[in-house]
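Re: How this chain folds, sequence and tokenised backbone to follow
How to read it: Take the token row as a discrete description of the fold.
Start of record: The labelled sequence and token lines come straight after this line.
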Amino acid sequence: MQRVARLVTRRHPLLQLRQAASSAPESPSTSSPSSSSTSTSSSSVVASTRMESLLTGDVPVEKRSLTRGLAMNKFEKDFMIYPEYTDTDDLRNIEGFVKVLHETLERSVDERALEKAGELSADVIAALRTSEISGCFIPREYGGLGLNYKDLMRINEELSIDWSVATHSTVSHMVSSLLLLYGTEAQKERYLPAIASGKCRPAISFPTAVGALTSSAEVHGTSVSGLDGTLMTQNVKAYGADKANLLLAFAYVKDASKVLSLRCFIIDRPAMGEGEKWETKREETLGLRAVDVSRVTLAAAVTEQSVLGDSGKEVASEALSCTRMPLSAAAVGYGKRVLEDIARIANETESQITPGLSLASHSHIHRIVSQLSLQLYALESVVYYLAGLLDEKLPVVVDVESALLHRLTREFLRSCTTALLEILGTRAVDSRELFEKRIRDVATLMALFDESDAVEQVAMTTMSTWTARQGKQSRGYSTLRRLLGAEKTMADLRDPKLQHFIAEHAHPSLQLACQELEHSMVRLDAVLAKLLNTEGKQVLVDYQSLERLVKVLENNLVMVCTIARASRSYSIGLRNADAELAWTTWLATERSRESWLHLNELSDYFGLIRLNSSLLKSGRSVLEWGGYQIESPMERNW
């Protein structure tokens, strides 16, 4: 408890950012990309107008947004400094806290027992409460610890000891973050201390269909605003609702003008009156069986004081966004455990191909482990880089970066599953082994936190900023000028010239990596100019082209974070820093070349050689046919 006391810090960063955003248009934002549609916008974070307002004005875009600046071939040297703890005592305190948490979880968590019971055990709940995990996300003035983002990421690494534990904590973090960002002072004072102490078990529901069942979530209002009345939900997906006593429920409200709008309501279970209903039906999921995923049916009285935030769409978007970094940090912890297990088994298992040698001597094992280790290094670098930026309270927007981080996390979790299957073989799917259970947990986790529209959001947001900042220069281009510009685009792709000399701001050993980053920046800016000037409307509806663009943005983000990290590690003499230099150089080279390939394909969008399979409309054809209807190569028509 003394360690916990020393961890109590200043006001929570989320609260500081939110208050700054409400008082000045030039304030930072931690939200994810805004949505481009009305019905599929649940994974966006804030309205585009609010986000773009942070990027307008006299401040250069490269000082506001790392990824947007790189896309426009603009560089801010401050982003090459990897964020770190400025006070050694803060680092030592969180290390001590995490050590105690690790030991506590090791004693209390039994993965098999949790899955069999279908819920977290009393020992696990007590361990989380003793460690004040729910309070980690809440500011001190509301009874929490008010830890910074780097602390939270380190804690979430340990919570990955079991994905059910990590998911349970993520739901608590989601609800407390939404209350902190959008709640009134009365709502914060009432609910946040209860969550921090563990007395309140929060849950959240979204108005989405579950399987083939029809779901609904509406408020039958009795006032002009439509906010006073009875909230009625049926078969709505919810997380943690069975044993919860506080629920954030999203529902559609029809006001006096008969316009439907999504709003978020706080349902206090102990305060529900006679005749009101709170019923849940547990879902049988493939994995995460200790996590309460259910369908909830509600009939609860609500008032305007029950409403959370002004826009339910914005609150729902933030709900998904605020889970990205904690889950990414948990994926880092999970990946480290996977690699430890693989290394142990590979060193202990005798090779069936070469007697007398271990499995670890096989070159194909080296390849798999190498690829997974590099992915983990990239993911870890991005997680703590973004956490550090938020801790320093820099006036930056990290909406695009958080969405790219989510993509990196999903890709890494898929790679973990593939590595386990390829190296362990049937042992990975043996129901007597924990590996099989963990693979099911990861599959379920990815299904629960799916954000399939993130590609469109990231691409649209980036192109919108690019057009607003640089598009004015291209207006009024003649056909001749476009033809001359096409030659410059091809020259930039073939032989990009250094303009920023990024290597001057990193360790000399990383010169090649810095050059690869700068080459990718030049190529991306050139291709964006060509696409948006010639094929803008077509590209906006072409998912494959948008996905290629997002992959390039993702590669640029990884290069910046790993270069900054490796440069710092070697400069201060960290253990295995020489390996970091080699890994970073390889990552930068591989990702830059991958980006070059994607950008070449984008630059020849309607070339004679169709490099874009989506232009064939093969996917749409298969859907219209009702399946794969190409005739067998053995078929005859006579």
